[in-house]
Design goal:
The chain is mainly beta. The protein is 13% helix and 33% strand.
Amino acid sequence: MPCRAGRNAGFSRAAPSKLYLPVDPAADRPTVEKQEDDAGSLLNRTRSLVHMRSTEPALAAHASFKTLYAENRRYPFVFLRSNGRHRMLVALNPSAKPVSVVVSGVPGRRPCILRYGRGVTAVRTGPRVRITMQGISCGLFRV
């Protein structure tokens, strides 16, 4: 992400023709400077996800990965990450349409949504979990 408005987005004082990669010329391009104090900005959402990745044991690189729902040309994509007693249910809906799916194989308790999941629910009914999602959404649940 560019650092700030101005020449070369704050990356370099060199002539634009000397840069290794071009800089987005749009006047309204996102910059760290513009997004720093906005809690809902892409910059701060990314920072929050990086922090979650480093503090949630179920998201560690060595945690196990189990696909719970993945159908060709269908959404959502649902998987389970586990690391010892720590488990995370992840659901991704990149389509613009709302979706709903019932999955099995989710151990543990009632799903507890984390920060990311606006417009996403996961409801346990016995051994199954129904996940309902708005278009272009994701949900991360502790289970």
